[in-house]
Design a protein that fits this description.
Organism: Scomber scombrus
GO molecular function, one term: dipeptidase activity
Helix content: 40-55%
Oligomer: single chain
InterPro entries: Amidohydrolase (IPR017439), Bact_exopeptidase_dim_dom (IPR036264), Peptidase_M20 (IPR002933), Peptidase_M20/M20A_hydrolases (IPR052030), Peptidase_M20_dimer (IPR011650), Xaa-Arg_dipeptidase (IPR017144)
Order of helices and strands: HHHEEEHEHEEEHEEHEHHEEHHH
Strand order of the largest sheet: 1-2-4-3-5-11
Distance between the termini: 39 Å
Structural class: alpha/beta
Strand content: 15-25%
Family: Belongs to the peptidase M20A family.
Protein name: Peptidase M20 domain-containing protein 2
């Protein structure tokens, strides 16, 4: 226990000693917001941060995706030839259209970088853990629109990662919130243009199809389970009032608490879309243009360790809300690697995806909470690395909860 506490003390001091550089990193990303898949500056800034950090990190950029990167250190400890336990910390850094870093992804990048630095220092300055350890910081772009972590999974980026940690800004501290599964559907109606006043009977009105589809979905909501969500927009509704619209497009998000329920919701929604096409005589094309996001699998052992470590350094954990309808591509990661995705307060009551939250994500007062979260993540990793029993329990939790959710 004394060794574990020494490692935790070391990592806390290390994070504190780098607080100015970490704040500069976060603020720099915040001040130049980039959309999903275009995070060139954020990627370069993070790569430069690790490349200049005492030359000890092996940095690969790009890594698997054009705006992803990987910084790794180790392995150390254990015995030569033993299996390596690769501990991963994830960074996000894409922004939202129009309102910048209104979800605080600049702070997620800072947490991942700080936790990686802290764990590295803890391993360097204390006697080695009983296992061989590698520390990896992985830059995961495009969470807001594409699901970059899912593309990284497909590309094999998580194949050698054994534990994974990240944290997301929110309205309160929580070791776990039940993020839901998400899929995006694109619906395109093709009709026939005609003069809307002189020859309306010659046209096939694609806007009528879009309006009917929207109303069909609205009626359907009454028959959905309380936790299911269906929400969307008409992206294209025509070009001019005196032309019967020949083309319209809708975009909807579908969410369910469990990924296995998405198929049922998709079938119900597709029936609404197709019925509108039949009623108006339009042709319809239904596609799913992005990766489906899974719900997050909880890991009770990691969550309890994180709460204990967080409380030890001043984090308070109020009672968490019963329902939370956000979605993240970390859910897909949680199905292949044991991990944790806590949420953290940043000294604002504003809600994510608002201009007020953008301002808070760039404010200096968010730094105390951000770095405290990074410390708690790294401290949790220390607990697991130094206890074979805890590591075994983390893996067993993962096995059991995955089995339950796949039934």
């Amino acid at each position: 226990m004394e060794k574990v506490q020494q490692m935790k003390n070391t990592l806390q001091l290390t994070v504190d000693s780098h607080r100015d550089e970490l704040h500069s990193l976060s603020r720099d990303i915040w001040s130049r917001p980039e959309l999903a898949g275009d995070e060139r500056h954020a990627q370069e800034r993070l790569v430069r941060f690790f490349s200049q950090e005492d030359q000890a990190w092996t940095v690969e950029s790009p890594y698997k995706l054009p705006t992803a990167f990987r910084a790794s250190w180790g392995p150390v400890g254990g015995r030569e030839g033993d299996p390596v336990l690769n501990v991963g910390f994830l960074c996000e850094y894409d922004a939202l259209p129009g309102i910048g870093h209104a979800c605080g992804h600049n702070l997620i990048a800072e947490v991942g970088a700080a936790a990686g630095l802290g764990l590295k220092a803890a391993l360097e300055n204390q006697s080695a853990p009983p296992v061989r350890v590698k520390v990896t910081v992985l830059g995961t772009p495009a969470e807001e629109a594409i699901g970059g972590k899912i593309d990284l999974i497909k590309a094999g980026a998580f194949a050698d990662v054994d534990l994974v940690f990240m944290a997301h800004p929110a309205q309160q501290d929580a070791s776990f919130l039940p993020c839901v599964a998400l899929d995006e559907v694109s619906v395109k109606y093709h009709g026939k243009a005609s003069h809307a006043s002189a020859y309306p009977w010659e046209g096939v009105n694609a806007l009528d199809a879009a309006v009917l589809a929207y109303n069909n979905i609205s009626v359907l909501r009454q028959q959905l389970k309380p936790e299911w969500r269906l929400h969307g927009i008409i992206k294209h509704g025509g070009v001019k009032p005196n032309i019967i619209p020949a083309y319209t497009e809708l975009q909807f998000y579908l969410r369910t608490p469990l990924v296995k329920d998405l198929c049922d919701l998709k079938a119900k929604a597709e029936a609404c879309f197709r019925a509108a096409a039949v009623a108006t005589g339009c042709q319809v094309k239904i596609t799913y243009p992005t990766n489906a996001y899974y719900n997050i699998l909880p890991n009770a052992t990691l969550a309890n360790l994180y709460e204990n470590n967080g409380k030890a350094i001043g984090i308070q954990f109020p009672e968490q809300p019963a329902n939370f309808s956000g979605s993240t591509d970390f859910g897909n990661v949680s199905f292949i690697v044991p991990g944790i995705h806590p949420f953290f307060y940043i000294c604002t009551d504003a809600f994510n995806h608002t201009e007020e939250y953008t301002e808070a994500a760039g404010a200096e007062k968010a730094q105390l909470y951000t770095l405290r979260t990074a410390k708690a993540l790294a401290m949790t990793a220390v607990d697991v690395l130094c206890s074979p029993d805890l590591l075994m329990q983390v893996k067993e939790d993962f096995r059991l909860v995955k089995l339950k959710h796949e039934k």
